Amino acid sequence: MATLTFSGGIHPYDGKNLTKDKPIREVLPKGDLVYPLSQHIGAPATPIVKKGDRVLTGQKIAEASAFVSAPVYATVSGTVKAIEPRRVVTGDNVMSIVVENDGLYEEVEYWEPLDPTENTREEIIERIKEAGIVGMGGAGFPTFIKLSPKEPEKIDYVIVNCAECEPYLTSDYRRMMEEPEKLVEGLKVSLSLFPNAHGILGVEDNKKDCVEILKNLTKDDNRITVKALKTKYPQGAERQLIYATTGRMINSSMLPADAGCVVNNVDTVVAIYHAIYEGKPLMERIVTVTGDAIADPRNFKVRIGTNYHELIEEAGGFKTEPAKIISGGPMMGFGIFDLDVPTTKTASALLCLTKDDVSSMEPTACIKCGRCVEVCPGRVLPNKLMVAAIHDDEETFLKLNGMECCECGCCSYVCPAKRPLTQTIKSMRKMQLAKKKK
Amino acid sequence: MGGLLKVSSNPHVRSKVNTVGIMFAVVLALLPAAGFGIYNFGPRALWVILVTVVSTVLTEFLFGLYKKKQTIGDLSAVVTGLLLAMNLPVSIPLWMAALGGVFAILVVKCLFGGLGQNFMNPALAARCFLLISFPKQMTDFVTDAYTGATPLAALKAGEEVNILDMVIGTIPGTIGETSVIAIVIGACLLILLGIIDLRIPGSYIVTFVVFIGLFGGHGFDMAYISAQMAGGGLMLGAFFMATDYVTRPITVKGQYIYGIVLGILTGIFRVFGASSEGVSYAIILGNLLVPLIEKITVPTAFGKGGRKHEK
Fold first, then answer.
1. ipTM
2. Among A185, A338, B22, B220, which residue's beta carbon has the most beta carbons within 10 A?
3. What's the CATH class of domain B19-296?
4. Do B18 and A361 touch (CB under 8 A)?
């Protein structure tokens, strides 16, 4: 059988060898912890503690303020020092709860474990909602909403995104190597919510060892299939992943549920496991700290709220001056100008590079080579969309399916003229989306 | 950490392929054909090549001075100059070759906005310009080595031609078009480097062969068809001119259509036209159809055929 994939895509230098074989090491925060109230898509959470309060590890400090929202939990014990705007990776100032760590790690009494075979669907979903679980691959969409579509019996596939197609990232890989049982059990919890669904673990074939381990673990479960996918960016993009694993296609106006699919990231599924079987809210995630500027690149188990400075320190600091620091992967991460930001629910990596490709390459004229068209997984014409966007030509932009761009960055990556295609199209899309909202 | 960090919107990495690299590869790929031209026609061919390249680069340089923006570093003018020389007879007066270079760069490229903005292939447009202006000098293929007609003209007159000579290239013609082997070596390099693919050359040549078979008057006579394929500028045109990024459609479907259109036009010009050759005009005409071809071949976006999300 041919390897499962989609058309288009790129093969950038993947840099995974830096951290691939480094076991996950836990990092205990030393300094203050900062919990932005908006680490997810939707309404910011509302603080339920005030300055001076003592909080415990695992204590809820902010609650969901609307349907699309998520609560936030303290990940250390200590005192609430302030509730004030703090900088986050995107460069925005976001209202945050600052907790001074007392180093005691006193814990609350966690919830009772649940049993998917006995507890009701509503109880399971309520627990996932209460645990503050959101999509940890980057988008941060509240997971309980994904798990409660209008017609659960119409969901045919529950897909776990184990592709990890972003270069340099190995956090999901390490998680799958070290705690594959949690991943599989977490998936079984999700499957218990959908009577007709089949579980799929979609893994890129550069992680053959993971494929083997997961296959072994699921060999007696006929509701779960492990599927090896071709190693290619963006294999883990939601639409491409659904296509590669099920052959179904969705566009920008559809949700995975419209194609009978639910897609979750590895860490998200593990968080579901923790919430159901250990009664713990979302408090930690795996972060890959890597790049050629880092002395000792590693994978860390990090408590949410931990300052990025501490992660760099844990990884031995800088061995050379970094020119660029990225929160997330090089294709879709955020370039940051200040390390004084907290780890959030959606931060998968901290990448420090000694060379900045972007500022070292001046954009030149488009020669219409068509490389952007060849690699575009959304099957649009990036060069024409960019021209339409520059001219603010809304009609042409929409006619050329500009809204179907998934902002994966392939076009900018391959462009021999180094034109900022993705960036320009992204701005235009944002403007169009804002207009629609009005 | 002393200095400020640079912030930019994602993606943060870029491939190593750049415009200069692509242009350089095309220059390299043209060297076998150019080298064979010099071998076949003697050192004057080298002079013609030098004159066109200097003329195209100098024109772009001077225009750059006027626009206060220098672009000769991208090597595209070198490619144009080289391609133009490939399309000229070795006996052409050097001033005509130089004039062709000026026309290609100034009129066809710079006046329309420079690299990427021209809607016709500059080298071919210049060739057509020279062909119309100086038909006698542009079709004079008599040299010390060759006194007869070009194989295509001979073919049109109903004479026998030597296929082997045509494949090797020891025949009269323009400097770079005669050797099928040299052209194919260069084309293979471009294909291996991923700079061109076979969509346009393939559909172009196949369509042309079918057309000649149907309307050429010789049926599917292999000897005749091979001579038609190897003769004139078809190989050079299909691999080096029709694949010119700027003037071919960017859509995949459009590239096949474009190749088919070129095949049909070349066939019409060669079979029914007054001249035995028609590749240049076919490609120039094809260039003009590109915006239209692109318009009707906008691809269906991923998932667009699917069910809409009801709201």
1. 0.90
2. B22
3. mainly alpha
4. yes
